[in-house]
Amino acid sequence: MAEADPGLFRTLASVPERSFADATALDAGLRDADRPFIVRSLVKDWPLVALGHESPRAVRRYLLDHARAMNFTVSVGPPGADGRMFYTDQMGMNFRTLQAKLPEIFARMDAGENRPDANPVYLQSLDMHRFFDGLYDANHVDLGDRKTLDGIWIGTATRVAAHNDFPDNLACVAVGRRRFTLFPPEQFRNLYLGPIDNTPAGRAISMVDFHDPDFERFPRFREALDHAQVAEMEPGDALYIPSSWWHHVEGLSAFNVLVNFWWRDTPRWLGQPQNALNLAIMAIRDLPDAEKAYWRDLFDHYVFHNDGSVIDHIPEGTRGILDPMTAEGASRLRAFLLRQLSQ
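Below the sequence we write its predicted structure tokens.
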């Protein structure tokens, strides 16, 4: 994969580095952090990392030894696109999504190794527990009592447009070099996001090509770069990405493996804020201005301010969903919303 103009990345601030004596110190550092940081060599003792130093094929053999006999979802991009998994000019996807067994996928990687005209191949966010036996046990980070979603990303040289995720994320580079370019959550206006409902992988992405930014078309991107941080990472390094931070991800080597651990500090039954945004776009965005202003005030009252004035005048035990949400309350509300949306 061709490198971007290095001048763009040399002008950006580097993500700070931190070190921790043990898992307890790492746990405390993650709980206190609200900005990204790198932990060098955190996972240097993983088998995946050791085999990566040997050869890509050694890693693939190891993964095959642990893989379950089931179909994997794989994205195959076009040759000559610099590994960019993105839209076509007609806003379709420039890659195909296929189902295949892992030996077939790896055979394709073997055949394309060292070929500049090979198609980029990318397996995204595979659940380590569902698709592999014993892989997590030998390649994980002690994150205390967090209930994590544990994913593995396997691919040739690729780059994924800037996007964000709702959970916190510890991303561990197992094989190959990676570059992350990160932006604070509030920079979304300057990243020129694409569609919400037509996305490469479920999250809105920046339309800016970081390898060749068009500042005439995207002038506010210069402001985003003023707030950007870059993380250049080697095998064994880990990067903490707080919830909602935007990140552009590049797998810089011919073969790359990333393992990441997602978690939320709030219960999963609270639901996804993105679903609320989608519903608000459908129900509120196109109302007359005066009605939108009313609903903005109502959202501030019930959702964003949410102080004692909302409930103090209502007898305890009769406040319904205005009381603190519980798993049972969330389940009832979800069922109610499903009934309403089906009408």
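The radius of gyration is 22 Å.
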